[in-house]
Specification:
Elements (H helix, E strand, L loop, with lengths): L2 H18 L9 E8 L2 E7 L2 H6 L8 E8 L6 E2 L8 E4 L10 E8 L2 E8 L2 E7 L7 E6 L6 E8 L5 E7 L4 E7 L11 E4 L12 H10 L15 E8 L2 E8 L8 E7 L17 H4 L5 E7 L5 E7 L10 E11 L5 E12 L1
Antiparallel strand pairs: 1-2, 2-3, 3-4, 3-5, 6-7, 7-8, 8-9, 10-11, 11-12, 12-13, 14-15, 15-16, 17-18, 18-19, 19-20
Length: 346
C-alpha cells in the first residue's frame, strides 16, 4: 500500500468517525425534558457511556442526569448544579443504583421536584432550587414488571397525576398522586397501548443487515421488538387533555411520537390522528422520539426530542427541538403536526 492510499484511508476514517460522533459542542442526551423557571430553560436528559464520552460536560462517577441552561434555547451551558460535574442528582441521594433514565423537572408549591427512572422503577426527588441539591422523596415499585418513564402532570385544580410506562398493564398507565406527592392516591389505570400499525412497525431488512454486518452491542443495534408506549408528556389545551407518547422500540429507526386526547386526566383516552405527530419523516433523523413539550419565548409550542446518532448507530443520541402546529377540530379536540422547517439540533 502506497503513501497516498494510506492517506485516503485515514481521511475516510476521519469522516466516518465525525459522522457517527458529532462535535463536542453538540448536546447529546436521550429522553430530553425542558423545564421553564423565569427566563431560564433547563434541559435534562438520559446519559449513556457513549454520550458521556462525547459530552461537553466531563464524565462523573458521583452524579447523574446532565443539566444545561439557556435563556434563548440557542445558547446552552452546563448548569451550576450543587451535585457538581454539570449533573443534578447525586448517586448517593438516588433511590436506585443504576439505569438512570427519563428525567422530568417541575415546580410545585415553591419546591422543585425531579421525577426519574432507576432500577426499572420510578421515583421523585425534591429540592429548593432547580439546580438542587435533591433529596429522596418517594419511589414506586410495580407488583409485576418494570414501571419506567414517569411524568407528573398538575391540573388547574392543583391535583397531580403521574403517567408512566407499565409492564404490568402492558402500556401507558396513569395514577393520581397524593397532594404532597409522597404516594399514589389510587390504583394505576391503563391509558393506551400500541394498537395502531404505525406503532408496531417491524424492522426493515436494511437495518437487520446492518446488525449482522457490524455486530453492535444492545444499545447500538437496530434489532428490536415492536416496543411499547413510553416517554409520556401531558398538557391541558382548550379544556382537553393531551398525552404525547413514543411508540416502537427506541432502537428502531421508526421510533416516533403519537398523541391521544381525553376529557379527564384519568381518561378514557382516544387517538384521533391516523399517524405519528413526529417521526423520522419530519426530521430526517432515525429514531426520533421520547421528549417533552414546552412553550418557547416566541409563544409557540415546541417539542424537544432525541434521535439516533447516525444512519448506522443509535448512540450517543442527539438532541433537537421542533415546533408543533396545533389545530382544533369541530369536536373540540386539538390535533398536532410537526413543522419540519423549524427543526434544529441543540
Amino acid at each position: 500500500m502506497n503513501e497516498r492510499s494510506i492517506w485516503h484511508l485515514a481521511l475516510l476514517a476521519f469522516f466516518v468517525t465525525a459522522a457517527a460522533f458529532p462535535l463536542l459542542g453538540e448536546i447529546l442526551v436521550a429522553d430530553p425534558s425542558i423545564a421553564v423557571a423565569g427566563d431560564r430553560y433547563y434541559l435534562i436528559g438520559t446519559e449513556d457511556d457513549a454520550s458521556a464520552a462525547c459530552s461537553q460536560i466531563k464524565p462523573s462517577a458521583d452524579a447523574v442526569f446532565p443539566m444545561y441552561v439557556s435563556e434563548d434555547l440557542h445558547s446552552w451551558r452546563p448548569a451550576e448544579t450543587t451535585a457538581g460535574d454539570g449533573r443534578c442528582l447525586l448517586k448517593s441521594s438516588a433511590f436506585g443504583k443504576r439505569d438512570f433514565w427519563a428525567p422530568q423537572l417541575f415546580e410545585r408549591n415553591k419546591l422543585w421536584y425531579f421525577a426519574y427512572t432507576s432500577d426499572y422503577r420510578w421515583g421523585i426527588a425534591v429540592a429548593e432550587r432547580p439546580e438542587g441539591p435533591f433529596r429522596p422523596w418517594m419511589s414506586y415499585q410495580s407488583k409485576k414488571g418494570q414501571a419506567i418513564d414517569p411524568f407528573v402532570f398538575q391540573d388547574e385544580d392543583g391535583r397531580a397525576y403521574v403517567y408512566f410506562s407499565s409492564a404490568e398493564l402492558n402500556g401507558m398507565a396513569v395514577a393520581p398522586l397524593s397532594p404532597d406527592l409522597r404516594s399514589l392516591a389510587g390504583s394505576p389505570l391503563k391509558c393506551i397501548t400500541n394498537d395502531q400499525p404505525w406503532e408496531r412497525k417491524p424492522l426493515e431488512p436494511q437495518y437487520e443487515a446492518l446488525n449482522r454486518k457490524f455486530g453492535y452491542g444492545e444499545w447500538d443495534q437496530y434489532r428490536c421488538g415492536i416496543g411499547t408506549t413510553e416517554g409520556p408528556t401531558v398538557m391541558k389545551r382548550h379544556g382537553k387533555y393531551v398525552l404525547f407518547y413514543s411508540a416502537n422500540d427506541f432502537r428502531s429507526p421508526d421510533y416516533c411520537v403519537g398523541a391521544a386526547v381525553a376529557d379527564h386526566p384519568l381518561g378514557p383516552w382516544k387517538k384521533l390522528q391516523s399517524g405519528a405527530v413526529l417521526s423520522r419523516e419530519h426530521t430526517g433523523l432515525n429514531g426520533t422520539g421520547h421528549g417533552d413539550v414546552f412553550f418557547g419565548p416566541d409563544g409557540n409550542l415546541w417539542y424537544v426530542f432525541h434521535a439516533h446518532n447516525s444512519g448506522i448507530r443509535v448512540s450517543p443520541r442527539r438532541t433537537g427541538v421542533i415546533q408543533l402546529v396545533e389545530t382544533v377540530g369541530a369536536d373540540g379536540y386539538p390535533r398536532y403536526a410537526a413543522n419540519p422547517q423549524s427543526m434544529r439540533l441543540l
